């Protein structure tokens, strides 16, 4: 009983020492024993010590009690501060050796790392910075704060978000450096990681390096038997398409079908993008891919229509006889009477014939064999031109609507196309697919509406003219599309290239009516139609009134038009204006001027007279002097940097780097000048020797 009471006193501290003294019913001997036992466990209170002491400070044992030693009576009195503690810890070796370290010298405080954030918090912060186009800050936050500062173990998503940001910015080496660091840490990449890596290969400035990295990564995934998702396959398709590797697109598409993935509109989007890279036969290949997409039961979307327009504008049709045999031959007859399948997902694998499509896309024309086969297939068909200016003038919209449409034939319907004839430009290729009106009708039949990109591509592809512009403006109003300055610049560029400067100026007036502000690109497009000196000078004056400074592209357009007409007075005026405004020439301008300064082959001014070459000698001398005065910058980035420096500090002209480059260009111009004079002297000497 007393033992349990003693342990109870030890647990509850000093406050339970009093009940022991209140046990008056017990005998004195019992109380003394309990007091002794309690004193061994619980130190007595100071009041108890003072009351129990005698006049000389000795403890009073009381009557009938035995004498207790002094060391036992004061046992535990020096450790009163430990009685109220609940837990005890051992001292660390650093604290035990602290007195020895104090004798040796001052102790440096040990740096402690406080982990206040998590890996997911850093993931969110990096994602936010990347959305704000602050990729370098996101990389510094990951490397400096997370890895070095808090020493956190990164997760897979930390690397994936950074690889995605590097891929969109085109930093191929940084993306794969993060990928290698990720593998060294033992983290397992996911589909999003591989998608970001393939996207980095596609967006790389060096297409060859991007293709090589994509092929290496693809081989690595095949060795490790890593299953890929549809999104990752589409990223790989995009890489092959942008790097002009269309055969790799078909290899990836075949692998997709073998692994059971569904072919969608986005899949054919990247196939059309691959056709766009072939400038010679891309239009014919795009029509073949379009036919296969319709055959698969997939309805094209707005992106597919825009890509078809881009191939119409930028790519040729290739060999006419081969295109006639492929697009209008027996292969297209299988499409007739075939309706669109609603369940394209379940049957797309059985419908798509990859081998046949690949053979037809990469077939090469043979002038001795294939052309005869193509003509023999069309025995009853005569070559009828698809578009003639007499029958389909660009100014009559009613005639444009009657143009034949190859898209009707590709869908399995009837078309007015009998055979293909010479296709000269983008307007001719657009007429093959129904013209602007027929193309828009096809989009409307599929439940699609044209967007700003569609109308801009049509303005840059269709035949220039005020009537065409009015039709596009009407379509934009019907579908509530807000037109921007890029749309009007495309219309101005088409009219100026066709030599219709008045039509281009009419587009500018429409811009002012619609309160669309002009920019430098607007005047650059107008400069393509300024074939006379007064038009070019008026253009520069209009730019000055608006408050715009002409750049090197504007002067390049003016020089190109003047050199085309061999108007050397016009060229000298433009070069003097460039010198006065401080606009440095680029490589394109130097090539244009070098071409204009050359004599025609087999030309002798002493035997015949050419009115266009009367002032060529004066221009050649002025051009050589102009080269000595003007540094010929070959890089547009260096030119833009120089323009910024001049605008910031117009009086500082003694930059060391600028002077060195100017001197090098002047010396190069002098070498060209002396070499030409030497050739001229040698030719004169040889002529004199022959006469003698």
From TrEMBL:
Polar residues composition-biased segments: 683-692
One GO CC term, this protein: mitochondrial matrix
Organism: Channa striata
NCBIfam families: PPR
GO biological process: tRNA 3'-end processing
Region (Disordered), start-end ranges: 37-108, 638-692
Pfam entry (one): PPR_2
Coiled coil: none
Renumbered ranges of PPR repeats: 155-189, 264-300
Protein's UniProt name: Pentatricopeptide repeat domain 1
Biased amino acid composition, Basic and acidic residues: 96-107
GO molecular function: tRNA binding
Matching InterPro entries: PPR_rpt, TPR-like_helical_dom_sf
């Amino acid at each position: 009983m007393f033992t349990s009471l003693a342990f109870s006193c030890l647990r509850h501290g000093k406050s339970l020492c009093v009940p022991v003294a209140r046990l008056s019913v017990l005998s004195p001997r019992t109380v003394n024993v309990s007091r002794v036992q309690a004193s061994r466990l619980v130190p007595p209170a100071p009041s108890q010590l003072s009351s129990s002491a005698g006049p000389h400070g000795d403890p009073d044992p009381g009557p009938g009690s035995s004498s207790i030693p002094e060391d036992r009576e004061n046992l535990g009195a020096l450790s009163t501060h430990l009685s109220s503690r609940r837990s005890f810890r051992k001292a660390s070796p650093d604290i035990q050796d602290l007195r020895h370290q104090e004798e040796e010298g001052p102790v440096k405080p040990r740096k402690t790392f406080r982990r206040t954030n998590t890996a997911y918090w850093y993931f969110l912060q990096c994602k936010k910075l990347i959305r704000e186009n602050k990729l370098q800050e996101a990389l510094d936050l990951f490397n400096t704060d997370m890895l070095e500062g808090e020493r956190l173990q990164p997760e897979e998503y930390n690397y994936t978000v950074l690889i995605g940001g590097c891929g969109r910015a085109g930093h191929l080496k940084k993306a794969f450096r993060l990928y290698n660091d990720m593998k060294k840490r033992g983290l397992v990449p996911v589909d999003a990681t591989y998608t970001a890596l393939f996207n980095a290969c596609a967006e790389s400035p060096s297409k060859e390096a991007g293709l090589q990295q994509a092929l290496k990564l693809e081989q690595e995934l095949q060795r490790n038997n890593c299953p890929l998702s549809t999104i990752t396959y589409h990223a790989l398709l995009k890489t092959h398409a942008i790097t002009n590797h269309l055969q790799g697109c078909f290899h990836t598409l075949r692998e997709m079908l073998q692994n059971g993935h569904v072919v969608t509109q986005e899949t054919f989007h990247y196939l059309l993008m691959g056709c766009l890279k072939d400038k010679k036969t891309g239009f014919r290949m795009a029509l073949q891919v379009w036919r296969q997409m319709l055959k698969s039961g997939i309805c094209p979307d707005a992106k597919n229509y825009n890509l078809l327009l881009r191939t119409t504008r930028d790519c040729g049709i290739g060999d006419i006889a081969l295109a006639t045999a492929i697009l209008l031959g027996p292969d297209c007859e299988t499409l007739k009477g075939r309706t669109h399948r609603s369940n394209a997902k379940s049957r797309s694998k059985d419908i798509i014939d990859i081998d046949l499509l690949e053979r037809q896309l990469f077939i090469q024309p043979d002038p001795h064999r294939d052309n005869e086969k193509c003509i023999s297939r069309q025995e009853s068909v005569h070559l009828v031109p698809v578009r003639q200016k007499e029958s389909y003038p660009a100014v009559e919209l009613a005639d444009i609507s009657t143009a034949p449409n190859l898209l009707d034939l590709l869908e399995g319907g009837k078309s007015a196309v009998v055979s293909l004839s010479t296709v000269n430009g983008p307007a001719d290729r657009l007429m093959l697919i129904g013209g602007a009106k027929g193309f828009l009708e096809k989009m409307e039949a599929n439940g699609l509406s044209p967007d700003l990109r569609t109308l801009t591509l049509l303005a840059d592809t269709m035949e220039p003219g005020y009537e065409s512009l009015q039709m596009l403006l009407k379509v934009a109003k019907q579908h509530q599309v807000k037109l921007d300055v890029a749309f009007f610049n495309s219309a101005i560029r088409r009219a100026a290239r066709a030599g219709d400067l008045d039509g281009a100026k009419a587009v500018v007036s429409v811009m002012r009516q619609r309160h669309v502000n002009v920019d430098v690109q607007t005047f650059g497009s107008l400069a393509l139609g300024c074939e006379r000196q007064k038009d070019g000078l008026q253009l520069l004056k209009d730019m000055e009134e608006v408050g715009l400074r002409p750049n090197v592209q504007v002067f390049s357009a003016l020089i190109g038009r003047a050199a085309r007409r061999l108007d050397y007075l016009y060229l000298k005026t433009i070069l003097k204006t460039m010198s006065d405004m401080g606009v440095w020439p680029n490589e394109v301008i130097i090539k244009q001027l070098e071409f204009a300064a050359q004599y025609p082959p087999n030309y002798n001014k002493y035997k015949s007279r050419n009115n266009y070459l009367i002032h060529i000698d004066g221009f050649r001398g002025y051009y050589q002097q102009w080269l000595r005065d003007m540094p010929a910058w070959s890089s547009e980035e260096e030119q833009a940097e120089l323009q910024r420096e001049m605008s910031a500090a117009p009086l500082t002209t003694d930059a060391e780097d600028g002077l060195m480059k100017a001197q090098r260009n002047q010396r190069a111009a002098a070498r060209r000048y002396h070499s030409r004079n030497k050739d001229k002297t040698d030719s004169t000497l040889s002529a004199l020797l022959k006469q003698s």
